[in-house]
Amino acid sequence: MDYTSIFPLMRAELTLTAILVLLFLYDLIAGERGRRWFSAVACGLLVVQVIVTLVPAPAGELFGGMFRYTPMDGVVKGVLAVGALVVCLQSDTWLRRDDTRHKQGEFYILTLSTLLGMYFMIGAGHFLMFFIGLELASVPMACLVAFDKYRRYSAEAGAKYILCALFSSGLMLFGISFFYGTTGTLYFDDLAARLTGSPLEIMSLVFFFSGLGFKISLVPFHLWTADAYQGAPTAVTSYLSVVSKAAAAFVLFTTLVKVFAPMVEQWQTLLWIVTVLSITVANLFAIRQKDLKRFMAFSSISQAGYIMLAVIGGTPLGMTSLVFYVLVYLAANLAVFGVLATVEQHADGRISLGDYNGFYRTNPRLAVMMMLALFSLAGIPPFAGFFSKFFVFTAAFQAGFRVLVFIALLNTVISLYYYLLIVKAMFITPSDAPIAPFRSDNYTRVSLALCLAGVLLLGVVSAVYDGINALSFGL
Amino acid sequence: MNILSLFPAVPLLMMLGLWLSKSRRQIHAVMVAGSSALLVLAVWLVFRYLGLREAGETAQMLLTDSVVWYAPLNIHYAVGVDGISVAMLLLSAIIVFTGTFASWQMQKDVKAYFLWFCLLSVGVFGFFISVDLFTMFMFYEVALIPMYLLIGVWGSGRKEYSAMKLTLMLMGGSALLLIGILGIYFGAGATTMNVQEIAALHNIPVELQRIWFPLVFVGFGVLGALFPFHTWSPDGHASAPTAVSMLHAGVLMKLGGYGCFRVAMYLLPDAAHELSWIFIILTTISVVYGAFSACVQTDLKYINAYSSVSHCGLVLFAILMMNTTASTGAILQMLSHGLMTALFFALIGMIYGRTHTRDVRQLSGLMKVMPFLAVGYVIAGLANLGLPGLSGFVAEMTIFNGAFMNADTFHRVVTVIACTSIVITAVYILRVVGRILYGTCENPEHLKLSDATWDERFAVICLVVAIAGMGLAPLWVSDLIRGSVSELIAHILS
């Protein structure tokens, strides 16, 4: 085996592991003074990670096909690293609080472990590798959800998360075992050649799908979402809603297209139903939410449904739209969570819709930031969300799913309604006790500036899309 | 850079200027400078366009330019104008210009107000210069969303309800539109998003056209107040601040008519032939029902909003008649209605700003109190009911003339029914004019009110001049548009 080829292909994973070790050592060595710089060190290392990941390299395989790398994987890993970076920037204020200050190191290590798990999930060429990645992405996540362990909600959310995660992993493993039974292999390439679409395999596909459906929180696998999002610390919620979801959606695309190609009709039917359910049910539930974190939970379920529009066709155009959608969604959703988190920290945990009444009067910049992000989520031009939505619609339409596109389009009207409810609260509804004016910390500002740049520029400047598109034809 | 790109670029620069301005004075300066620049640009464009035609340019779209934007989907930033878009750009520039003066007295958060106002105009101007389906749709949606905040924050009455209703209904329309656009794009072989090129290909199968035509027509029709999708219009207009009502009724509703003509009918001509009867019936209902509804309203803005439903219904009605005369009339009606309804809303805003009521029953004898505004109101009313010499007459005359040229019974019957709206219009206009302007002023508070200020006079005079100009020299306008209309119609009929 040629060990020199390992670094270029696994550079994202190796760098990330090195960063994990460095942060662990830093946590051990640095005293009370050194811990103050923890965020800066972690974010600096993550910037390095982003750069290393985004450097282009040719595709290749390692360990007899267990691990593989394509340039598109590199882009997605880079996007996830950017997401993790923004989340880390936004969690600074929260981590400096008295009850969390001593466990800053744990936060970063757990977060980056899940990221490493996602990287292995994306790079897997074999179902065992895939499953290890999935578990590495799930188990530390449960610790993160329960990170504020002395708060009842957080502990409850952690318990719910881990139970659901284990159950769905179990289902998935069950499904995978049947695949092994019917085909005698777990290598992706061999599976693709040997699958026949027998009833047993269809059942296994459903089991497999439910495992990933849990990670992406698609209806009907979404029941944990609202509670976990509400209970988890806001930084973790944003990580859960963006990075974890994006990784799973991308993996779903590649496995469905590469491994389950012989069963394309079956999974398209499955996905059709799940997409309609996700978008519609989540939209209807979102309307009634008063707690903004729960609200964003349902919003993110519905966004996941839109992501599935890109998956369902299984075309290169769909791949481009998927990655682009995820990138835009990342910018917009992290902007919303950034505002929610900083408000929560500066206004004693106020997080309900009513608390945001009159927000524009007191904190105009944050209100405008939030509004732009919400418009992007709702798909209003000239913000990036409009373009990404248009592209997923085009991808699904091109693949012939016209009725599905129509249903999704009608749902955009509902989603606009509930996003406008927040805009209305901030800009129109007066309040007796609005959130007092405050200055958010510099880390949050940097993160919000990054997100704002994404929301404003990703759509209008077509270069990013073209760059992604250039890579998706190798599918 | 293409000269047409200045139309959306100038409002963008205005937004930048507004963002940097520190005082009310500077904000006004930016707005006046920007909107005058737009007006000059629009007038210059008219002469340039006519000049190019004189010089023998025969291409359908002039001053075209195209930049690749999203190559994999054949999306271009493509611009170009024909006579219809030039006329629409001129109309928009006039309304933006006068709208600036009509909002001169605005007190609350002026900066943000004008920022949204400018974004709205970016959308409007961008829409009229676009010849690429995607770009067109994008600008169309850019024009929708500022309405929510403009009505919600600066509006009056049931503003939150109205703003939400308007935004959601229009968004619903644009959802239909988007799937229609995708249908057109893929139906035509997914090689181009350019309107002219798709029309030239003329290869969308009829059975697909039958699906997409109603969607696109209704999608644009929602904005054009097509019955039964017009219900956002009265509430929205009644709650919106003055300049927003002006821009919305004056220009934004025209996006609907323009889109129905340029996209729905032009790109899907076969289905348009087959299915036009459905929409002719709907538009006839719009025309008559809108007029009757206006008769029973007591709020000045509601009266004018229903009158807009009726008149915009006439625009769609005329387009569906599918001959050059009626369609020329439709474009004339868009211009005429844009100007006079803007004048109406401006005057209603000014009267409301003084009396703090728009209820017809509480107003009377205003002619003595504020003669300038009252005379303006009479002129707007007369234009609305189609008095010869003002713009309304020219437009409606051409429309009904053209509509009657269709020899079959169905078209003639609906034309006769639609014609009755002229009489009904006279009823509600004269009733209101008589009630609020003449007679004795019964409310002693109203006797103390002052007449128009200079900025208001300026806005009113500009609009009156435009209305009278169009009424007295209609040939000038119809020369501008006739050539382009007949080309579109020739394609639809082919």
Structure explained in plain terms:
The complex is a heterodimer of chains A (475) and B (494). Chain A is mainly α and 475 residues long. Chain A has one domain (3-471). Chain A contains 21 helices and two strands. A two-stranded antiparallel ribbon of chain A has the order 1-2. In chain A, a hairpin with a 4-residue loop joins strand 1 (60-62) and strand 2 (67-69). Chain A is globular. The two termini of chain A are 26 Å apart. The model of chain A has no long low-confidence stretch (mean pLDDT 89). Chain B has a two-stranded antiparallel ribbon. Chain B has one domain (3-493). Chain B is mainly alpha-helical and 494 residues long. Helix content of chain B is 77%, strand content 3%. The two termini of chain B are 36 Å apart. In chain B, helix 3 (83-102) packs parallel to helix 13 (324-355). The chains are: A mainly alpha (475), B mainly alpha (494). The interface between A and B is medium-sized, with 33 and 30 residues.
